[in-house]
Automatic annotation (TrEMBL):
Entry-linked Pfam families: Methyltransf_25
Identification of the protein by name: Methyltransferase domain-containing protein
Domain Methyltransferase: 53-149
Keywords: Methyltransferase, Transferase
Organism domain of life: Bacteria
Molecular function GO labels: methyltransferase activity
UniProt GO BP: methylation
Length: 281
Protein backbone atom coordinates (compact mmCIF):
# COMPACT_ATOMS: atom_id res chain seq x y z
CA UNK A 1 0.00 0.00 0.00
CA UNK A 2 1.18 3.46 -0.68
CA UNK A 3 -0.29 6.64 0.58
CA UNK A 4 -2.60 8.74 -1.54
CA UNK A 5 -2.41 11.88 0.52
CA UNK A 6 -0.05 13.50 2.99
CA UNK A 7 -0.51 13.18 6.71
CA UNK A 8 2.06 15.95 6.94
CA UNK A 9 3.91 17.94 4.27
CA UNK A 10 6.76 15.39 4.55
CA UNK A 11 4.62 12.51 3.25
CA UNK A 12 4.87 13.34 -0.48
CA UNK A 13 8.61 13.83 -0.09
CA UNK A 14 8.91 10.46 1.65
CA UNK A 15 7.00 8.60 -1.07
CA UNK A 16 8.88 10.41 -3.82
CA UNK A 17 12.24 9.64 -2.23
CA UNK A 18 13.20 6.93 0.30
CA UNK A 19 9.76 5.39 0.81
CA UNK A 20 8.91 5.19 -2.87
CA UNK A 21 12.30 3.77 -3.80
CA UNK A 22 12.10 1.15 -1.04
CA UNK A 23 8.70 0.03 -2.34
CA UNK A 24 10.03 -0.17 -5.90
CA UNK A 25 12.98 -2.25 -4.71
CA UNK A 26 10.72 -4.60 -2.74
CA UNK A 27 7.76 -4.62 -5.12
CA UNK A 28 7.99 -8.32 -5.95
CA UNK A 29 8.01 -9.26 -2.28
CA UNK A 30 5.17 -6.90 -1.40
CA UNK A 31 2.99 -7.97 -4.31
CA UNK A 32 3.45 -11.64 -3.54
CA UNK A 33 2.57 -11.10 0.10
CA UNK A 34 -0.50 -9.00 -0.71
CA UNK A 35 -1.83 -10.86 -3.76
CA UNK A 36 -4.70 -12.63 -1.96
CA UNK A 37 -5.78 -9.26 -0.55
CA UNK A 38 -5.59 -7.67 -4.00
CA UNK A 39 -7.68 -10.51 -5.41
CA UNK A 40 -10.35 -9.93 -2.78
CA UNK A 41 -10.67 -6.20 -3.42
CA UNK A 42 -10.70 -6.67 -7.21
CA UNK A 43 -13.45 -9.26 -6.90
CA UNK A 44 -15.47 -6.96 -4.63
CA UNK A 45 -15.08 -3.91 -6.88
CA UNK A 46 -15.32 -5.50 -10.33
CA UNK A 47 -18.12 -3.71 -12.25
CA UNK A 48 -18.25 -6.11 -15.20
CA UNK A 49 -16.42 -6.40 -18.49
CA UNK A 50 -15.83 -3.08 -20.21
CA UNK A 51 -16.17 -1.01 -17.06
CA UNK A 52 -14.03 1.92 -15.94
CA UNK A 53 -12.34 1.59 -12.53
CA UNK A 54 -10.28 3.99 -10.38
CA UNK A 55 -7.49 2.46 -8.23
CA UNK A 56 -6.74 4.74 -5.26
CA UNK A 57 -3.18 4.74 -3.97
CA UNK A 58 -2.19 2.37 -6.76
CA UNK A 59 1.53 2.33 -5.93
CA UNK A 60 3.49 0.30 -8.46
CA UNK A 61 0.28 -0.60 -10.26
CA UNK A 62 -0.25 -4.28 -9.59
CA UNK A 63 -3.93 -3.95 -8.66
CA UNK A 64 -4.50 -1.50 -11.52
CA UNK A 65 -3.04 -3.94 -14.03
CA UNK A 66 -4.89 -6.93 -12.57
CA UNK A 67 -8.17 -5.02 -12.80
CA UNK A 68 -7.37 -3.86 -16.36
CA UNK A 69 -6.90 -7.47 -17.48
CA UNK A 70 -10.16 -8.50 -15.85
CA UNK A 71 -12.07 -5.59 -17.43
CA UNK A 72 -10.89 -6.58 -20.89
CA UNK A 73 -9.73 -4.34 -23.73
CA UNK A 74 -13.02 -2.44 -23.83
CA UNK A 75 -12.55 -1.38 -20.19
CA UNK A 76 -10.22 1.07 -18.51
CA UNK A 77 -8.31 0.88 -15.22
CA UNK A 78 -6.89 4.15 -13.89
CA UNK A 79 -4.43 4.27 -10.99
CA UNK A 80 -3.72 7.43 -8.98
CA UNK A 81 -0.88 7.94 -6.50
CA UNK A 82 1.37 10.70 -5.14
CA UNK A 83 4.64 8.81 -5.73
CA UNK A 84 6.45 9.46 -9.01
CA UNK A 85 8.91 6.54 -8.57
CA UNK A 86 6.07 4.10 -8.01
CA UNK A 87 4.11 5.45 -10.96
CA UNK A 88 7.19 5.15 -13.17
CA UNK A 89 7.38 1.49 -12.15
CA UNK A 90 3.66 1.06 -12.83
CA UNK A 91 3.89 2.53 -16.33
CA UNK A 92 6.93 0.40 -17.12
CA UNK A 93 5.07 -2.72 -15.95
CA UNK A 94 2.03 -1.85 -18.08
CA UNK A 95 4.23 -1.48 -21.14
CA UNK A 96 6.24 -4.64 -20.44
CA UNK A 97 3.08 -6.70 -19.87
CA UNK A 98 1.24 -5.21 -22.83
CA UNK A 99 -1.66 -3.90 -20.75
CA UNK A 100 -2.88 -1.07 -22.96
CA UNK A 101 -6.06 -0.24 -21.03
CA UNK A 102 -4.26 0.86 -17.85
CA UNK A 103 -3.47 4.51 -17.16
CA UNK A 104 -1.66 6.17 -14.25
CA UNK A 105 -2.13 9.65 -12.80
CA UNK A 106 0.10 11.48 -10.33
CA UNK A 107 -1.96 13.30 -7.73
CA UNK A 108 -3.61 13.31 -4.30
CA UNK A 109 -6.99 11.62 -4.65
CA UNK A 110 -8.29 13.83 -1.82
CA UNK A 111 -8.17 16.94 -3.99
CA UNK A 112 -7.25 15.75 -7.50
CA UNK A 113 -9.85 16.46 -10.19
CA UNK A 114 -11.02 12.92 -10.91
CA UNK A 115 -13.94 14.06 -13.03
CA UNK A 116 -17.64 13.77 -12.29
CA UNK A 117 -19.48 10.46 -12.70
CA UNK A 118 -16.49 9.18 -14.66
CA UNK A 119 -16.03 5.71 -13.13
CA UNK A 120 -18.12 2.61 -12.57
CA UNK A 121 -16.12 1.63 -9.48
CA UNK A 122 -13.23 2.64 -7.24
CA UNK A 123 -10.93 0.20 -5.46
CA UNK A 124 -7.98 0.42 -3.08
CA UNK A 125 -5.58 -2.00 -1.46
CA UNK A 126 -4.39 -0.22 1.72
CA UNK A 127 -4.46 3.19 0.02
CA UNK A 128 -7.22 5.14 1.78
CA UNK A 129 -6.04 5.44 5.41
CA UNK A 130 -3.56 8.26 4.81
CA UNK A 131 -5.77 11.14 3.66
CA UNK A 132 -5.30 14.36 5.61
CA UNK A 133 -9.07 14.99 5.51
CA UNK A 134 -11.08 11.79 5.21
CA UNK A 135 -14.42 13.53 4.62
CA UNK A 136 -13.04 15.65 1.80
CA UNK A 137 -11.34 12.63 0.24
CA UNK A 138 -14.36 10.32 0.23
CA UNK A 139 -16.64 13.11 -1.00
CA UNK A 140 -14.23 13.64 -3.90
CA UNK A 141 -14.20 9.93 -4.66
CA UNK A 142 -17.99 9.73 -4.55
CA UNK A 143 -18.29 12.56 -7.08
CA UNK A 144 -15.98 10.64 -9.41
CA UNK A 145 -18.27 7.59 -9.50
CA UNK A 146 -21.41 7.18 -11.53
CA UNK A 147 -24.65 6.92 -9.52
CA UNK A 148 -24.70 3.42 -8.06
CA UNK A 149 -20.99 2.98 -8.66
CA UNK A 150 -19.21 0.69 -6.21
CA UNK A 151 -16.44 1.49 -3.76
CA UNK A 152 -14.35 -1.45 -2.51
CA UNK A 153 -11.27 -1.13 -0.34
CA UNK A 154 -9.19 -3.06 2.16
CA UNK A 155 -7.83 -1.43 5.30
CA UNK A 156 -6.12 -2.77 8.40
CA UNK A 157 -7.92 -3.75 11.56
CA UNK A 158 -6.29 -2.91 14.89
CA UNK A 159 -2.72 -3.53 16.06
CA UNK A 160 -4.18 -6.02 18.55
CA UNK A 161 -5.62 -7.97 15.62
CA UNK A 162 -2.21 -7.87 13.90
CA UNK A 163 0.22 -8.63 16.73
CA UNK A 164 3.18 -9.51 14.52
CA UNK A 165 3.05 -6.09 12.86
CA UNK A 166 4.55 -4.57 16.00
CA UNK A 167 6.82 -7.47 16.95
CA UNK A 168 10.03 -6.13 15.34
CA UNK A 169 9.67 -2.73 17.02
CA UNK A 170 8.77 -4.35 20.35
CA UNK A 171 11.89 -6.52 20.18
CA UNK A 172 14.04 -3.49 19.36
CA UNK A 173 12.51 -1.19 22.00
CA UNK A 174 14.79 -2.11 24.95
CA UNK A 175 17.85 -1.02 22.96
CA UNK A 176 16.61 2.20 21.30
CA UNK A 177 15.31 5.56 22.57
CA UNK A 178 11.56 5.43 23.21
CA UNK A 179 9.22 6.49 20.45
CA UNK A 180 6.04 8.49 21.11
CA UNK A 181 2.91 6.37 21.11
CA UNK A 182 1.17 6.68 17.73
CA UNK A 183 -2.21 8.37 17.50
CA UNK A 184 -4.38 5.61 16.08
CA UNK A 185 -7.00 8.17 15.01
CA UNK A 186 -4.50 10.10 12.90
CA UNK A 187 -4.02 9.33 9.20
CA UNK A 188 -1.88 6.23 8.95
CA UNK A 189 -1.91 2.46 8.83
CA UNK A 190 -4.37 1.97 11.70
CA UNK A 191 -6.67 4.93 11.06
CA UNK A 192 -9.59 2.73 9.92
CA UNK A 193 -9.28 0.05 12.59
CA UNK A 194 -12.64 1.12 14.08
CA UNK A 195 -15.35 0.01 11.63
CA UNK A 196 -17.87 2.47 13.06
CA UNK A 197 -15.50 5.32 12.28
CA UNK A 198 -15.28 4.11 8.70
CA UNK A 199 -19.04 3.74 8.49
CA UNK A 200 -19.51 7.29 9.79
CA UNK A 201 -17.10 8.80 7.27
CA UNK A 202 -18.77 7.04 4.37
CA UNK A 203 -22.30 7.89 5.52
CA UNK A 204 -21.43 11.57 6.02
CA UNK A 205 -19.95 11.82 2.54
CA UNK A 206 -22.93 10.41 0.70
CA UNK A 207 -22.23 6.69 0.37
CA UNK A 208 -24.96 4.09 0.85
CA UNK A 209 -25.24 0.30 1.18
CA UNK A 210 -22.14 0.32 3.39
CA UNK A 211 -20.82 -3.12 4.33
CA UNK A 212 -17.75 -3.79 6.46
CA UNK A 213 -16.62 -7.39 6.80
CA UNK A 214 -13.53 -8.94 8.38
CA UNK A 215 -10.96 -10.28 5.95
CA UNK A 216 -8.27 -12.55 7.40
CA UNK A 217 -5.55 -13.65 4.99
CA UNK A 218 -2.64 -15.95 5.81
CA UNK A 219 0.55 -14.25 4.64
CA UNK A 220 3.45 -16.55 5.57
CA UNK A 221 6.82 -14.98 4.86
CA UNK A 222 10.46 -16.09 5.12
CA UNK A 223 12.26 -14.60 8.10
CA UNK A 224 14.92 -12.76 6.04
CA UNK A 225 12.19 -11.17 3.92
CA UNK A 226 10.25 -10.05 6.99
CA UNK A 227 13.42 -8.55 8.46
CA UNK A 228 14.01 -6.67 5.21
CA UNK A 229 10.47 -5.28 5.18
CA UNK A 230 10.67 -4.27 8.83
CA UNK A 231 13.92 -2.38 8.33
CA UNK A 232 13.16 -0.73 5.00
CA UNK A 233 9.44 0.07 5.02
CA UNK A 234 8.96 1.64 8.44
CA UNK A 235 10.47 4.00 11.00
CA UNK A 236 12.48 1.26 12.71
CA UNK A 237 15.15 1.20 10.01
CA UNK A 238 15.77 4.93 10.25
CA UNK A 239 16.08 4.74 14.03
CA UNK A 240 18.45 1.80 13.79
CA UNK A 241 20.75 3.68 11.40
CA UNK A 242 21.30 6.30 14.08
CA UNK A 243 22.47 3.70 16.62
CA UNK A 244 26.05 2.52 17.10
CA UNK A 245 27.20 -0.86 15.75
CA UNK A 246 26.91 -2.66 19.10
CA UNK A 247 23.33 -1.48 19.53
CA UNK A 248 22.47 -2.42 15.96
CA UNK A 249 23.77 -5.94 16.55
CA UNK A 250 21.69 -6.31 19.71
CA UNK A 251 18.57 -5.05 17.95
CA UNK A 252 18.98 -7.37 14.98
CA UNK A 253 19.55 -10.35 17.26
CA UNK A 254 16.49 -9.51 19.36
CA UNK A 255 14.32 -9.07 16.26
CA UNK A 256 15.53 -12.35 14.79
CA UNK A 257 14.85 -14.25 18.02
CA UNK A 258 11.38 -12.73 18.36
CA UNK A 259 10.33 -13.54 14.81
CA UNK A 260 11.97 -16.97 14.69
CA UNK A 261 9.70 -18.01 17.56
CA UNK A 262 6.81 -17.59 15.09
CA UNK A 263 8.31 -19.71 12.30
CA UNK A 264 6.33 -22.67 10.96
CA UNK A 265 7.92 -24.81 8.24
CA UNK A 266 10.52 -22.15 7.54
CA UNK A 267 8.05 -19.25 7.30
CA UNK A 268 6.89 -16.71 9.85
CA UNK A 269 3.20 -17.52 10.21
CA UNK A 270 1.58 -14.12 9.76
CA UNK A 271 -2.09 -13.33 9.24
CA UNK A 272 -3.23 -10.02 7.76
CA UNK A 273 -6.33 -9.01 9.73
CA UNK A 274 -8.20 -6.48 7.61
CA UNK A 275 -11.61 -4.98 6.85
CA UNK A 276 -13.12 -5.38 3.39
CA UNK A 277 -15.32 -2.33 2.94
CA UNK A 278 -17.87 -1.85 0.15
CA UNK A 279 -20.38 0.91 -0.53
CA UNK A 280 -22.36 2.52 -3.33
CA UNK A 281 -22.26 6.08 -4.62
Amino acid sequence: MTTTSPQTPAQPSYWNQAGGQAWVDLQGLMDGLNQPIADAVIEAGFPGKGGCVLDIGCGAGTTTLDMARRLGPAGASVGVDVSAPLLDAARAAAQAQGVANAQFLEGDAQTFDLGTAAYDAAISRFGVMFFADFDQAFANLRRALKPGGKLAFVCWRSPADNPLAGAPADAAAPYLPPMPQPDLNAPGRWAFADPERVRGILARTGWRDIEIAPLDVDTPIALPDLMTLSLRMGPLGARLQQADEATQAKVLAAMTDRLRACEVDGKVAMTAACWLVTARA
